[in-house]
Design goal:
0% strand, Growth Hormone, Chain: A, mainly alpha, single chain, globular
Length: 502
């Protein structure tokens, strides 16, 4: 074991964050490149692009829960998380190499369906991300005690991951999306495989006898996610809808409304139950419920921002006056086309989002010492809601889009850092991987709702609706977070700070 691991130094936190950073870089690369390549290079429309993006949630549903459950109970290659991080990194690197070669693969295999090939590559890529991300997050909880030190671990994870996420968008503008995919392949391989070899995992986790003796069946898992049944039902429907759009269109909008209504009603029931019978399982379900609405918004933004920019912003611009183009031309000395303009604005917008996401976790961690993690997280999310509404109603210019992304980034900085330190204190520590996988269903099932958002926008041709709906979803999330209790470790620390005046 490295000395820095024993002391939990900042250097160790940085090394511990690298596998999750590889995943973050992979996700940023997908956001920057996948929709752009599919729409601009291969001519897929918004329905087809969002269908390909469904590969991610599908991979998450099966990958994270199964891998989480297995990684809690195996020991291979000197670790319980290490084998999955390494395998996921290798497969992810290979898929990044394959993505720009869809046309070549089509010719070589005789498969003419670009959507099929793109979906298979995206599925394998997302499966590798999901195989890696769960153990990469779980290992931070495995190696850090509850409270401040665990929060520090997840803050470091977000800061380093967010910083390299910024780099991904920067590289997209400098070298183009196809070159970015090659860089991502190398980066993901190196950060997944190499650092994990220097981290020593504990063979026996320090948990209570009650935690270690408990078991969870498939039925127990299914029961624990009942607040998400509405999203699960619509997710299954959205897969079928892609193939039978004309026949099923009449029930599409009523079903999405019913799914959301079910989730909201169940949310109130969970809150009422928690007041009568407080428990960790109830807190876990409240966190899942609140997190669910957040991810409907963020996934819809990730997938469809390019279409919003293409329809709402680019027609109002002179290509020679676009700041993103000037920035790209300064870096590359190449004249930017209209298609490149959309990609440049997307990349610069998400660069801003991730820059804020990388810088703010340290700020939020200091605020959390004063007012608690839950209050800090809820306030940060409120800024995302404001950002979404700002883009919806004032995002007709390039700079207004960037300002909206800045505001949204404040919430984003909390979504993939603070939430994990809160959630991990409500679950069975002996089943960290399993519960990380279950919690991820509050990410992947809402992601499948983005297909429904895309269909509504496509029908109305009102791209302003994208950010209006994103703002509404985040408002629901903020509302439900107000009923989540502060973890005991933070509550006691906050009380000490108040009493001592620090």
């Amino acid at each position: 074991m490295l000395a820095i691991q024993k002391k939990l130094t900042n250097s160790f936190y940085a090394i511990l964050a690298l596998p999750a950073t590889a995943v973050g870089f992979a996700l940023s690369t997908q956001i920057a490149a996948l929709s752009w390549i599919l729409s601009k290079k291969f001519g897929l429309n918004i329905h087809e692009v969002t269908f390909v993006w469904l590969a991610g949630p599908l991979a998450g549903i099966f990958g994270q829960v199964i891998v989480g459950m297995i990684s809690d109970n195996v020991w291979f290659l000197g670790g319980r998380r290490r084998p999955f991080i390494m395998v996921g990194g290798i497969v992810g690197a290979l898929m990044f190499l394959a993505l720009p070669q869809i046309g070549v693969i089509s010719q070589a295999t005789g498969i003419t369906s670009i959507i099929l090939i793109a979906s298979v590559i995206a599925l394998l890529l997302d499966l590798s991300v999901n195989v890696t991300f769960n153990p990469a997050r779980s290992i931070i909880a495995d190696l850090t005690p509850e409270g401040k030190k665990r929060t520090t671990g997840y803050v470091w994870m977000q800061v380093i991951s967010g910083t390299f996420g910024v780099l991904a968008y920067f590289l997209s503008m400098v070298y183009g999306n196809e070159t970015l995919l090659l860089i991502a392949a190398i980066f993901v391989f190196c950060c997944s495989v190499i650092p994990i070899l220097f981290i020593q995992e504990p063979k026996d986790l320090y948990v209570s006898a009650e935690d270690s003796s408990s078991s969870h069946t498939v039925m127990d898992i299914f029961k624990s996610i009942f607040p998400l049944y509405g999203f699960l039902a619509f997710g299954v429907f959205s897969l079928i809808f892609h193939f039978y759009q004309n026949e099923l269109r009449v029930i599409h909008n009523p079903l999405i409304i019913a799914s959301l209504a079910y989730t909201i009603i169940i949310g109130f029931w969970i809150i009422a139950k928690g007041k009568k019978e407080p428990s960790d399982s109830n807190e876990f379900q409240k966190i899942m419920l609140a997190h669910t609405f957040t991810w409907v918004a963020f996934q819809s933004m990730f997938v469809m921002s390019g279409f919003f920019i293409d329809k709402q912003i680019v027609p109002n611009l002179e290509l020679t006056n676009v700041f993103a183009n000037k920035f790209a031309e300064f870096l590359t000395s190449a004249t930017q086309s209209q298609d490149a303009t959309t990609g440049n604005i997307v990349s610069l917008g998400f660069l801003i989002l991730n820059a804020v996401g990388a810088l703010f976790p340290f700020v939020l961690s200091q605020i959390a010492k004063k007012i608690g993690r839950v209050n800090t997280y809820t306030a940060a999310l409120a800024f995302s809601a404001i950002g979404y509404f700002y883009i919806a109603f004032f995002g007709q210019t390039e700079y207004s889009f960037y300002f909206g992304m800045f505001l949204t980034g404040i919430g984003w900085s909390a979504v993939i850092s603070i939430v994990f330190s809160i959630m991990t204190e409500t679950i069975n520590q002996a089943k960290m991987g399993l519960f990380m996988g279950i919690f991820n269903l509050a990410v992947v099932l809402p992601q499948m709702m983005s297909q429904g958002v895309a269909n509504i926008i496509s029908e109305t041709q009102n791209y302003q609706l994208l950010y209006i709906l994103c703002g509404v979803f985040v408002c629901f999330s903020v509302f439900f977070w107000t009923f989540v209790k502060e973890p005991k470790s933070t509550a006691s620390d906050t009380l000490k700070n108040v009493k001592t005046g620090h």
